Amino acid sequence: MPQLVPFYFVNEVTFAFAVLVTLIYVFSKYVLPRFVRLFSARVFISKL
Fold first, then answer.
1. Is 31 within a domain?
2. Which residues form a coiled coil (predicted)?
3. Is residue 19 pLDDT above 90, yes or no?
């Protein structure tokens, strides 16, 4: 059914966009602040 090919690609693009937005949100909310906190703690400890 070649009529459904564009809808398949639209579905793939939508799913990829949703996954990308979710990953960006999770990284900015949980992962990156932990690395920043760890790095700042290392800098603070090394300056003591």
1. yes
2. none
3. yes
Task: Tell whether the model's pLDDT for residue 32 goes beyond 80.
Answer: yes
Domain with 31 in it: 22-48
Closest to 15 measured CA to CA, from 5, 7, 3 = 7
Quick one: 17 exposed, middle or buried, by C-beta within 10 A (0-12, 13-18, 19+)? exposed
Residue 5 within a domain: no
> Is the residue at 47 inside a domain?
yes
**pLDDT given for residue 2 in this prediction:** 72
In this structure, the dihedral spanned by the alpha carbons of residues 21, 23, 27 and 31, taken in order and rounded to 10 degrees, is 160
